[in-house]
Specification:
The protein is of the alpha/beta class. It has two domains: 2-161, 3-Layer(aba) Sandwich (Leucine Aminopeptidase, subunit E, domain 1), CATH 3.40.220.10; 182-497, Aminopeptidase (3-Layer(aba) Sandwich), CATH 3.40.630.10. It contains 15 helices and 19 strands. The chain has helices at 31-39, 43-49, 87-103, 123-137, 167-192, 200-214, 223-228, 232-238, 292-307, 352-362, 379-385, 397-410, 421-426, 443-452, 487-497, and strands at residues 2-7, 17-22, 60-63, 74-78, 108-111, 156-161, 217-221, 246-252, 262-272, 313-322, 334-335, 343-344, 370-375, 390-394, 414-416, 434-435, 460-464, 470-471, 481-482. The strands form four sheets. An eight-stranded mixed beta sheet has the order 7-8-10-9-13-17-14-15, with helices on both faces. Helix 4 (123-137) runs parallel beside helix 5 and helix 5 (167-192) runs antiparallel to helix 9. The longest helix is centred in the middle third of the chain and has 26 residues, at 167-192. The two termini are 29 Å apart. 55% of the residues are buried.
Length: 498
């Protein structure tokens, strides 16, 4: 989608439709909506008075002005009650209205900034959310659809502001919104790709192409290098597949390439059968999404490069395919990860944490100021929090609080769950130092405790995105499939470091 900004009067924009908004309960429109209402001799006020448009959140209405407006259509979007208004609602409202525009064959849409005037939001932030919503709301994954491509696609979005003093803000916000949304879309594309087309080696190839295009440096470890580095856990997970694991390193050097970095770590299980501890067949098709933590890290790193953030940031992906052939690791095996503490395998379906512990041990050499891992790690987290929040654990309260706040700002809610001594005791091994699952009670927390055991001397946070990584129902800014969750949260956190 082509994104542009303009300073001028929304009534004069040459587009297929213009977008205006209204808060719930408003009787007399103000701002740009009020200006257009006057030009139309009170048509919007009449719509309100007749009860046909109340401004309820996500409500839409279409007007076809006979004169006074250059565009042939006006799309009204309800912002809901002003006391409930937020940046997240801007994003959702923008997604709703752009989908409405697409359904009506609109190719060029001109919109005001939702919340940048009467809404009282920071103009750059509101513009960013308006653009994010537009891009994410029109996202489609059609790679494997045969036949003619969709014709009802929005091709151009113009963000229009009347006040010229806000030009820099809307330009900055629109650019950030586009880059962030593109990172989310990349994560969605990777998550939605089927396991047969995206084994670890192909994932690594796609990542290197992306990295080269945006200026990230990269290094890929093949299965031999993984073994020589001593990554016994990642090797074990991948040994049951004919398609071997990969360890991917991406680096954005920032303003000081020698600075201690922030590190993002993603679980990249490109397909998870459960291994010898085979999953039930019902729902196994969703296990292509088991690499959505890696997808989030990859999408975030692309965005980091495009935004050229000043911080040195490293992205790590531990990628493997968990299959049950004759070479697969077994329940009862004892493995030696890079982090030295030996692990007794109780379930080969608790494989993601094994891939991650080698990554968490490896990154110690960078002396990170903070490390954040993302993983579709446990069904227990879905049981605890459902599909509206990710589980958040860690060893540093400042980092946990910063991630929690980033989640609130972006609508990617991260809810803090405590790792207690009892959880650590549950994963103590009988025949090795640790066992890779502590049983059903507190399953999300014992998984977090297992990861924590391989964190050595740096601030660390863990996001269990098992409940948020993909949708089985359509939402305004996300169709069925991979959500790209984590990209916007991570970028918000990283930008606030600056």
């Amino acid at each position: 989608m082509d994104i542009s900004t303009a300073i001028g009067n929304i009534t004069e924009q040459e587009a297929d439709a213009i977008v205006l908004n209204l808060f719930e309960g408003v009787v007399t429109p103000g701002g740009a909506t009020g200006v257009v209402d006057q030009v139309l001799n009170g048509q919007i006020s009449a719509l309100i008075a007749g009860g046909d448009f109340t401004g309820k959140f996500k409500q839409t209405s279409i007007l076809y002005p006979a004169s006074g407006i250059t565009a042939p259509r006006i799309i009204l979007i309800g912002l809901g009650k002003q006391e409930d208004f937020s940046i997240d609602r801007v994003r959702l409202a923008s997604a709703v209205v752009t989908k409405e525009a697409e359904q009506r064959g609109v190719k060029h849409l001109a919109t005001i900034v939702h919340g940048g005037g009467i809404g009282g939001l920071n103009v750059a932030d509101a513009t960013q959310a308006t653009v994010e919503g537009a891009v994410l709301g029109t996202y489609q994954f059609t790679t494997y659809k045969t036949g003619a491509p969709p014709t009802n696609t929005l091709e151009k979005l113009s963000v229009v502001e009347f006040d010229s003093s806000k030009q820099t803000d809307i330009e900055t916000g629109a650019q950030a919104g586009q880059h962030i949304a593109e990172g989310v879309c990349l994560a969605r594309n990777l998550g939605n790709a089927p396991g047969n087309d995206l084994p670890p080696s192909v994932l690594a190839e796609q990542v290197t192409e992306m990295a080269a295009s945006v200026g990230l440096s990269y290094e890929i470890f093949d299965e031999h290098r993984i073994q020589s580095e001593g990554m016994g856990a990642l090797s074990a997970v991948g040994q049951g597949s004919t398609r071997p694991p990969r360890f991917i390193i991406l680096e954005h050097k920032g303003q000081n390439p020698e600075a201690d970095p922030v590190i993002l770590v993603g679980k990249g299980i490109t397909f998870d059968t459960g291994g010898i501890s085979l999953k039930a067949g019902d729902g196994m098709w969703d296990m292509k999404f088991d690499m959505c933590g890696a997808a989030a890290v990859i999408g975030a790193m692309q965005t980091v490069a495009k935004l050229n953030l000043p911080t040195r940031i490293i992205g790590i992906v531990a990628a493997a395919e968990n299959m049950p052939d004759g070479n697969a690791y077994r329940p009862g095996d004892i493995i030696k990860p890079l982090g030295k503490k030996t692990v007794e395998i109780r379930s080969t379906d608790a494989e993601g944490r094994l891939a991650l512990i080698d990554a968490l041990a490896y990154i110690k050499r960078y002396n990170p100021t903070a490390a954040i891992d993302l993983a579709t790690l446990t069904g227990a987290c879905v049981t605890a929090l459902g599909n509206d929040a990710s589980g958040l654990m860690g060893n540093n309260n400042d980092l946990i609080q910063a991630i929690h706040q980033a989640g609130n700002r972006t609508g990617e809610i991260a809810w803090h769950l405590p790792i207690l001594e009892g959880h650590r005791n549950q994963i103590k091994g009988d025949y090795a130092d640790l066992k890779n699952t502590g049983g059903r009670p507190g399953g999300a927390l014992t998984a977090g405790a297992f990861l924590e055991a391989y964190v050595d001397g740096y601030a660390w946070a863990h996001l269990d995105i098992a409940g948020t990584a993909w949708n089985n129902t359509t939402r305004p800014d996300t169709p069925i499939g991979a959500t790209g969750v984590g990209v916007r949260l991570l970028i918000d956190y990283l930008r606030n470091l600056s």
